Amino acid sequence: MAQNSNKGSAVYDSSFDAHSPKQLTLMSDLSHALENQELELYYQPKVKVSDGSISGAEALVRWNHPKHGLLGPDQFIPLMERTRLIQGLTLWVIQEGFSQCAEWHRTGLDIILSINLSAKDLNNPELPDLISGIKGATGINPAWITLEITESSIMTDPDAAMGIIRRIHDMGFQFSIDDYGTGYSSLSYLKSLPLKELKIDRSFVSDILRDESDAVIVNATINLAHNLGLEVTAEGVEDQATLELLKEEGCDLAQGFHLGRPMPQSEFNQWCSENR
Ligand code: C2E
Ligand code: CA
Ligand code: CA
Ligand code: CA
What we know:
The protein is an alpha/beta fold. It has eleven helices and twelve strands. It has an eight-stranded mixed β-barrel with strand order 3-4-6-7-8-9-10-11, surrounded by four helices. The chain has a two-stranded antiparallel sheet with strand order 1-2. The radius of gyration is 18 Å and the shape is globular. The two termini are 35 Å apart. Ligand C2E binds at residues 44, 59-61, 72-74, 77, 93, 116, 118, 178-179, 202, 236-238, 255-257, 262.
């Protein structure tokens, strides 16, 4: 499978079908992927809408598969989420992400790292202690880390999820609602969760210049978040005109291909030194 190059960063081939009979072998490959060091974190910049300066990065996992080439998370995370493998992946991402973030801060790069959690993580009562251990080992300041959760991942078992989120938040870590607007949940959890941020899903953001109802939803979400004292990030910003409109709407942060693609760590560091 070919690795394309786009603006210097590797792009994976989305034609690989995780639902084909191949998925069974993929599943067994996955259990070895971690030990064989085939997983890699890419980092996508998150910038302030007001002045374009970097504020953070999101860690997005990639799998350098020995046979299939570079695989994106949509091609293996859903498979992992059906088993406990996802918990091993999450811990690896946290270990790797915390180390990298500590390194950035040691070299004077003051950025916040966002890490994705999945539904099974929010049902794992051992997660807070595991995170606490990795925090101690890496010397990370929890204020540098935001954990992204989705509406649907909370709703699997809201009471259990809430307890785990509270314990992690009590250590000083921040929480964000990812893909906001795509879940089925009510708004009541918004006030009961210790949140810092809402991330408006790409499906609402990408068309705000052409689709009036998307523009209305984005505007309402920004106001709702601000009235609740939360920051708002728009995902999937692909052009300057969209960024300008988000600026008029008072959106705080933006992420998207127009600002920067997910990049391997060395390329991300290079990007930061050019965009500071
Ligand atoms: P997500 O958390 O919503 O991450 C944003 C996705 O949107 C990423 O896809 C990113 O590459 C893509 N994206 C960013 N800007 C743009 C843009 O301007 N246009 C378009 N079309 N796409 C954009 P990616 O890396 O393929 O990740 C897909 C999903 O996989 C993520 O969605 C997240 O749910 C999951 N994922 C990624 N890494 C991890 C991880 O370490 N752990 C867990 N549990 N899930 C992960
Ligand atoms: Ca995310
Ligand atoms: Ca998202
Ligand atoms: Ca998504």
